């Protein structure tokens, strides 16, 4: 399990994993963007700032009207309306979408898999580029953030309802027209794209963001194969638990399109699995000398809680910007 110190505010703690090392815990952590973003202590109450910052959706906002998915799923305003298993997520609703009260919509999968806004913003800052593919867009947590740092966002999901919810939510944030929503299977998309080396619109892909399904909210509890001997520990999440294909296969598919990959994974991910994704074949620096490639693992903290890991590959990893 990934380790790190908890912080009063959201911070990212980076750890560089030498792809060739087997002892992944030995690299020293370095802190980034400490205290640059703050969250509210009480999820159930909006702060004044959130209220005044919220853009007013005018009835004449045509993008919002045509993408309006109101009614497709329930919009909860009271705890009493929320199914028992979603209550803990509803409690965090304004962490997911600071504009939740403007009508953001999530379905069940959306509730438990959305990237919280502060984390999505941090990832989007790291992924700043021309064209980014959000391979598993869900209800749009990351796509909305990417639309604020990237020129072109291609957001893919194979679930039509969720894609419509993503577009609805993007309209609330005023960025729907900056995102190309694609209903489809990323695996097929990647295979087709690889043959052409560029998107339909003739754009090369700079970055791919992977936030695949982890097997549902039970991802922390492991499978029969990886239960720990000590029952007090969380079992490790293995890349083989990723769906719709093995997490290694998914990464290799993305890597055929671009080396610049950000991979959003559970906090209990086996770091050796992550390290093993890096191949050093053919790696050279500008002078043609071999240079071992690295993956940077960023721990995503919210308050006292480690939420997830974002693993940066290729030119997204610090010190490897020349690979971009
Ligand atoms: P969590 O641990 O299920 O939630 O997920 P939380 O609120 O930390 O619950 P607790 O019981 O541990 O206190 C933590 C974060 O992981 C979520 O906010 C999502 O961003 C992300 N996440 C969770 N799941 C199950 C998925 C998933 O299947 N896919 C993706 N891409 N992200 C997920
Ligand atoms: N990052 C998202 C959450 C992603 S959850 C957010 O912040 O909102 C994972 C998503 O992957 C789900 O919406 C699911 O429908 C989608 N998905 C599953 N298999 C897929 C596939 N083969 N191709 C594209 N999307 C897929």
TrEMBL record:
Q: Name one GO molecular function term.
A: RNA cap trimethylguanosine synthase activity
**GO CC field:** nucleus
What residues form the membrane-spanning segments? Answer: none
CDD domains, A to Z: AdoMet_MTases (cd02440)
Q: Which InterPro entries match?
A: RNA_cap_Gua-N2-MeTrfase (IPR019012), SAM-dependent_MTases_sf (IPR029063)
Family the entry assigns = Belongs to the methyltransferase superfamily. Trimethylguanosine synthase family.
Q: What is this protein called?
A: Trimethylguanosine synthase
Q: What is the lineage of its organism?
A: Eukaryota, Fungi, Dikarya, Basidiomycota, Agaricomycotina
């Amino acid at each position: 399990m990934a380790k790190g110190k908890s912080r009063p505010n959201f911070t990212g703690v980076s750890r560089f994993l030498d792809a060739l090392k087997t002892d992944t815990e030995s690299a020293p952590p370095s802190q980034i963007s400490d205290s640059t973003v703050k969250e509210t202590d009480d999820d159930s109450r909006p702060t004044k700032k959130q209220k005044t910052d919220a853009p007013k959706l005018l009835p004449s906002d045509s993008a919002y009207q045509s993408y309006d998915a109101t009614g497709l799923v329930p919009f909860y305003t009271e705890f009493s309306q929320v199914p028992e298993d979603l209550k803990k997520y509803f409690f965090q609703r304004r962490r997911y979408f600071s504009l939740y009260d403007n009508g953001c919509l999530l379905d069940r999968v959306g509730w438990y898999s959305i990237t919280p806004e502060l984390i999505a913003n941090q990832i989007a800052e790291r992924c700043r580029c021309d064209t980014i593919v959000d391979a598993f867009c869900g209800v749009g947590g990351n796509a909305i953030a990417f639309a604020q740092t990237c020129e072109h966002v291609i957001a893919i999901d194979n679930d039509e309802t969720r894609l419509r919810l993503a577009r609805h939510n993007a309209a609330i944030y005023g960025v729907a027209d900056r995102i190309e929503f694609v209903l489809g299977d990323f695996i097929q998309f990647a295979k087709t794209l690889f043959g052409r080396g560029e998107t339909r619109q003739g754009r090369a892909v700079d970055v791919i963001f992977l936030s695949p399904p982890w097997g549902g909210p039970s991802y922390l509890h492991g499978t029969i194969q990886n239960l720990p001997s000590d029952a007090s520990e969380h079992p490790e999440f293995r890349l083989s638990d990723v769906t719709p294909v093995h997490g290694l296969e998914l990464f290799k598919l993305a890597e055929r399109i671009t080396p610049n990959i950000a991979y959003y994974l559970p906090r209990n991910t086996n770091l050796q699995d992550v390290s093993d994704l890096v191949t050093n074949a053919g790696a050279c620096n500008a002078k043609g000398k071999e240079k071992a490639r690295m993956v940077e693992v960023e721990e995503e903290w919210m308050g006292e809680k480690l939420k997830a890991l974002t693993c940066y590959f290729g030119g997204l990893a610090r010190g490897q910007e020349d690979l971009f």
